[in-house]
Design brief:
The protein is mostly helical. It has five helices and three strands. The protein has helices at residues 3-14, 16-27, 33-37, 44-56, 75-117, and strands spanning 31-32, 60-65, 68-73. The chain has a three-stranded antiparallel beta sheet with strand order 1-3-2. α2 (16-27) crosses α4 (44-56). The protein is elongated, with a radius of gyration of 23 Å. The relative contact order is 0.11.
């Protein structure tokens, strides 16, 4: 993934309303923007804007069926996003563990130093 692709992905899933649209698409096969608009507390126009962002990030695709446009999740891209998030979470866990160990060491040294001052 390129940095721009990563940015589009993180931006796409960062917005709660967009995640709601994505969740609905994950839970349902191929659906129309009108159907989605009936499931969410915002306008069809807002749904359409969210769909554009999700499609640009590669998380969903669309296909025409008659006069209707149906949207569906791109499972491989969603899996890739989930793996990227898991890797990022693991990185932050390691960083936080290092900070915790440093803080514990500093605290132990501080206690040791205070005992020798008395």
């Amino acid at each position: 993934m390129t940095a721009q692709t990563d940015d589009e992905l993180w931006s796409a899933i960062a917005e709660p309303s967009r995640r709601l649209v994505l969740d609905l698409l994950v839970s349902n096969d191929a659906v129309s923007a009108s159907w989605l608009a009936g499931q969410v507390p915002f306008s069809r126009q807002a749904v359409s804007k969210h769909l554009v962002v999700l499609e640009r990030a590669g998380l969903i695709s669309r296909r025409k069926q008659g006069r209707e446009v149906l949207y569906q999740v791109q499972a491989d891209r969603l899996d890739h996003a989930a793996r990227a998030m898991a890797e990022l979470a693991a990185l932050w866990d390691r960083r936080l563990d290092t900070i915790r160990r440093l803080a514990e060491t500093a605290h132990a040294q501080s206690k040791k130093g205070n005992r020798h001052d008395g």
